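Records of this kind hold a single protein each, on a pair of labelled lines. Below, a sample record shows both lines together.
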Amino acid sequence: MANMAARCTSCGECVRPCAFLQQQGTPAAIAKRGSTPDNLLTAYGCSLCGLCDALCPEQLSPSSQFLAMRREAAAQGLVDLKPYKPWLTYEWLGGSLLFRRDHIPANCQTVFFPGCSLPGTRPAATKKLFRRLQQHDRSIGLVLDCCGKISHDMGLVKRFNTIFNHLQQRLKTYGITRVLTACPGCSKMLRTYGQGIEVQSIYELLAEQPTNLPETILGTVSVHDPCPSRFDQAQHKAVRKLIERTGYRIEELPSSGPVTRCCGQGGMVEGCAPGTVHREATLIGAEAAERPLVSSCGGCCETLSNMTPTAHVADLLTSTGSFSGRPLSSFRRWLNRLLLRFSRLQ
């Protein structure tokens, strides 16, 4: 925090779009309050979305400071985990044997890792994407598991290391050197901590495959870039290319690419500040101005569909869904993951 206190000029660029900083002050002001218990716990009001990093003229990373504050608070036992039980249970179950699956063909060095949200909300699309990959290369495998991002963002270092190291060791045991991701959060975790593993979004791979542009324009949509992919220009470009190939014209949101807004789910802020999801999703819905939205994050799609018709890019690519305004129930998402776990892939 000393570096932030010394270098942040409190210019206010990061404060203007951020409800957390509007309440708590500039990153420098927060840093200067030090490592008191109350100050450390304020970091749980930050979504860790990284918009402040993108806007900082000094090229500082306030989000890294707030993650470090969360880790210190957790290490000191200051965090009441009860409000976060739904997220932590979701993570624990998602990585359990009941929902975990390793489909590793002969000579497999690349696997498709769809994450948690896509299998839960779009199991048919997940299977179709995997089959499309296998048409390209029969040796590509499938791993259903959780990357541990929830524990990571909660600052629970030991728990995250246990989850992620177990996943990484399995991949190494199978001889996997490349992972194709569908979830931007998984992409970020694997790129940051997956030593020796090449990570590429499935959208980049699919965008590289030649195809004809549609003759008919189906309509105009806007793209919501998930905050974990904020600085992933290759994925932004690939997603837009795929959307246009399915017949839609794109009209960009004011907040997109590096300056995209968090849908409200980031950092599990809802656990300590109820109403965050609705507030942030409403802002994005207003930017969409009644245009349908397309995103590459299943969680974002579920949140934003309450505000405006929203589709996952996988829906457009596989024709397994539509622009919907009704999120699935928790029971249905778990059932989808269970059925996918035991389904035939070929």
Summary: The longest helix spans residues 157-174. The chain has a mean pLDDT of 95. Residues 2-75 form a domain with the Fumarate Reductase Iron-sulfur Protein; Chain B, domain 2 fold (CATH 1.10.1060.10). The chain has three domains: 2-75, 86-206+334-341, 213-326.
